[in-house]
Amino acid sequence: MKKLTTLAALVGALLLTNCSKDKPSTGNQSTTPATLTDRVLTENLTLPWEILWGPDNQLWITERSGKISRIDPATGRATALLTISEVVSRGEGGLLGMVLHPDFATTPEVFVAYNYLNGNNYLKKVVKYTFRNNALSNPVTLINNIPANNTHNGTRLAISPDRKLYITSGDAADASRAQDKNSLAGKIQRINLDGTIPGDNSIAGSTLWSFGHRNPQGLVFVGDRLYSSEHGNATDDEVNIIEKGRNFGWPNVEGYCNTANEQTFCGANNVAQPIQAWTPTIAPSGIDYYNNNAIPQWKNSLLLAVLKDSELLQLQLNAAGTGVEKVNAFLKGKYGRMRDVAISPEGKVYIITSNGNNDKVIEVSGK
């Protein structure tokens, strides 16, 4: 029995090195020389979704029930700011993405995205709050009526260097929506910070920036380049570089354009291929970019929180940032499902778990 278990583990490890059906991965699963220290900073959270390092040197988090809190990274103490009563949490839905205004000291605005009900319709909206006197107030709806479901909501937010808000939306469990440019589902949207539509969007008068997405749960800018992580179906979880107007293939393409039907569709529809994909799937969620000397082995890397495989992945980028050179796994199975990751200016990494019971904030630093 022991030999069979060992063989199964070896086969599983070999499968993880393969990427997207029969195409070799652009990155190799390997061990790393990085030595880390990890500890539990905060406990007793319930399904947190977002974690951010704020300009106030606090960690900001959302929980799917509708709660927004700040956590002191020195003590781990959580202080609740607001519970949004309109939030309706169903399945994987609820209060999800959050981002702070880049000029927070002078423009203390907080952008959140959550699911709600309009009659019997389960939908998503993005709302801007103002932060004053340690409280959030003055909600302003920027965009609403985005299709939602118990699954495939996407919903990560990011603000570009030119002050545009990007919103990931899953296909809301209806794959046909992803290729429908008139649907808000299965898209990455782009709006101004006041909710208006930029004049240079992919389609005039539309919030659409890219389409053909299944369930993108990670989003981060590195300079003006936008990376996203996305859940595949039975195969081909992905990391993509998001480009204006590009089709990312779902449901006609999964991962790379490497079957006859996919190649035909890709050629006819200007499909962008991922820079990394995984088969078997790993369930990738939040990502952030690490470029700090505190953990030098992680410089110029995307850090990816993984749910199904319960680990933190380091995706070492090439010098141009256009490809993945290697993939290293950390903390596998130690804390359970990992939902999102944030990085402090001094190079500490903070991870939130998504186990549904006594969820935690984990602090990781170089040793």
UniProtKB/TrEMBL annotation:
Full protein name: PQQ-dependent sugar dehydrogenase
Domain Glucose/Sorbosone dehydrogenase: 46-357
Source lineage: Bacteria, Pseudomonadati, Bacteroidota, Sphingobacteriia, Sphingobacteriales
InterPro entries: 6-blade_b-propeller_TolB-like, Glc/Sorbosone_DH, Quinoprot_gluc/sorb_DH_b-prop
Xref: Pfam families: GSDH (PF07995)
